[in-house]
Amino acid sequence: xxxxxxxxxxxxxxxxxxxxxxxxxxxxxxxxxxxxxxxxxxxxxxxxxxxxxxxxxxxxxxxxxxxxxxxxxxxxxxxxxxxxxxxxxxxxxxxxxxxxxxxxxxxxxxxxxxxxxxxxxxxxxxxxxxxxxxxxxxxxxxxxxxxx
Length: 148
Hints:
The longest helix has 23 residues, at 2-24. The chain has helices spanning 2-24, 34-48; strands at 54-63, 74-79, 87-91, 97-104, 107-113, 120-126, 134-139, 146-147. By secondary structure, it is an alpha+beta fold. The protein has a domain at 54-147: Immunoglobulin-like (Sandwich). The N and C termini lie far apart (94 Å).
């Protein structure tokens, strides 16, 4: 019986101590929990944020001195600034054409890879300016690509 009394006494002491610690550092009810406030703010932003429009972009690449592009020629789009998660790659057909669909309207970097040519890069192409037309890119054997 003595053991049970000691266990009960110890349990009561532990509970009393824990309650005292919890009450010793009260939190003002006027101040919301910061992590909960941050989560609420993010949820509200998602609800009020307008869905970003998406577009299809048609690209035509030509290479100096080449009638048809070599097999496996490709182009890569890498999003900048507000769409940095965008990263797409596609193979150009023999006419140098490709269409990317469901792209966000933002600025991208284009990297063009054509067999027999150095890799060419257009560092910043604003897709908003090009959404209703074909992006035409001419690759030269020397120098930067020409964007029309």
